[in-house]
């Protein structure tokens, strides 16, 4: 099972976001990564966008098991609700649709201190 830590960053002065992420194998070695600028956006949208992009990225590599780790508890809770597929947040809805594909995605919250690849 690969691990994905999708950090999203928002510059506080201009609120311009960037998203990216890393895929690690079971030993913690880097497998692949992605990033892109996403423009003016808030912190929650940035995190959701990073997760969405990361899942699309992982799917393109034919990965069938992934452990998604986020340090944003609100994001984790939004994605773990049974109603995520019907969410009014378009990114939550899109991520929920990705989660229903033929693969295993384990979503977990980790403290910021445990997410060493974020910085």
Set down the secondary structure blueprint.
Elements: E1 2-5, E2 8-10, E3 16-24, E4 30-40, H1 43-60, E5 65-70, H2 73-80, H3 90-99, E6 104-109
Parallel strand pairs: 1-5, 5-6
Antiparallel strand pairs: 1-3, 2-3, 3-4
How would you characterize the overall build of this protein?
The chain has helices at 43-60, 73-80, 90-99, and strands spanning 2-5, 8-10, 16-24, 30-40, 65-70, 104-109. It is of the alpha/beta class and 119 residues long. The chain has a single domain (2-118), classed as Ribonuclease H-like superfamily/Ribonuclease H (Nucleotidyltransferase, domain 5), CATH 3.30.420. Strands 1, 2, 3, 4, 5 and 6 form a six-stranded mixed beta sheet that branches. α1 (43-60) runs parallel beside α3. The radius of gyration is 13 Å and the shape is globular. The two termini are 23 Å apart. The model has no long low-confidence stretch (mean pLDDT 84).
Descriptors for this entry?
RNaseH-like_sf; 3 helices; RNase_H-like_dom_plant; RNase H type-1 domain-containing protein; RNaseH_sf; Nucleotidyltransferase, domain 5; alpha/beta
